[in-house]
Amino acid sequence: MDNDILKVLYSESDIQDACQRLGKEIKSHYGDKVPVVIGVLKGAIFFMTDVIRDTDMYMELDFMDVSSYHGTTQSSGVVELVTDISTDISGRDVLIMEDIVDTGRTLKFLIDTLKGRGAASIKVCTLLDKPSGRVVEASSDFIGFEVPNEFVVGYGLDYEEKYRNLPYIGVLKPEIYANN
Ligand SMILES: O=P(O)(O)OC[C@H]1O[C@H](OP(=O)(O)OP(=O)(O)O)[C@H](O)[C@@H]1O
Ligand code: HPA
Ligand SMILES: [Mg+2]
């Protein structure tokens, strides 16, 4: 897999430093509250577990699988709810954990859906924010890195469902996209 990478944007240690910082910000924001932390599958799996593992506060976990890229580098424009959470979030403080906010469509869908179920508050933690990709308005409360306008892979992020298990985040060589 390493051979397919043109450049590394964020190393393993850059990512771990960001996770530690975000964990502290989240703990200080919630104080004694017990939020429901929702990991957005599949991309946020590693990020969510790395942030919460060292964050010493009470929280509940759940997962929502939503999809709109279907392995490609372009959003289909339609966010599909593949698997829902099982927690009743009415009156609860919700923290959404995302790997990336790009066009903003996925985040808007999530916030609209969870608001409609009566969450008391909704906050968003994303490892990567790509403001240059935005098509709809969507903002995050806790952000790891602002990423340039490139399609990135690794640490949960995929191209054609692959590269999620790279321990760092990088950009693929142009011929990888061209070959598919
Ligand atoms: O801001 P947007 O343009 O909506 O893009 C962000 C979303 O796109 C990716 O999900 P994808 O649909 O690829 O599903 P995946 O997490 O299973 O890869 C990513 O994990 C985010 O959830
Ligand atoms: O840059 C990206 N990489 C992988 N998945 C994504 N989903 C939205 N943007 C991206
Ligand atoms: Mg994807």
Structure write-up:
The protein has 180 residues and is of the alpha/beta class. It has a single domain, classed as 3-Layer(aba) Sandwich (Rossmann fold). Helix content is 25%, strand content 29%. It has helices spanning 12-30, 45-53, 105-116, 174-178; strands at residues 5-10, 36-41, 60-67, 80-83, 93-101, 121-129, 142-146, 152-153, 169-172. Hypoxanthine binds next to β8.
What number is the mean pLDDT? Answer: 96
Global structural class: alpha/beta
Largest sheet: 6 strands, mixed
Number of helices: 4
**Which architecture name does CATH use?**
3-Layer(aba) Sandwich
Residues in helices, as a percent range: 25-40%
Structure ligands: 1-O-pyrophosphono-5-O-phosphono-alpha-D-ribofuranose, hypoxanthine, magnesium ion
Radius of gyration: 16 Å
Straight-line distance between termini: 16 Å
Secondary-structure element order, as H and E? Answer: EHEHEEEHEEEEH
Name the strands of the widest sheet in spatial order. 4-3-2-5-6-7
Q: Which CATH first-tier class would you pick?
A: Alpha Beta
Give the DSSP E fraction (strand runs of 2 or more residues). Answer: 25-35%
> Are there runs of 5+ residues with pLDDT below 50, and where?
none
CATH fold group: Rossmann fold
Would you report the number of β strands? Answer: 9
Shape annotation? globular
Count of folded domains: 1
Keywords: Glycosyltransferase, Transferase
EC number: 2.4.2.8
Protein name: Hypoxanthine phosphoribosyltransferase
Enzyme class: transferase
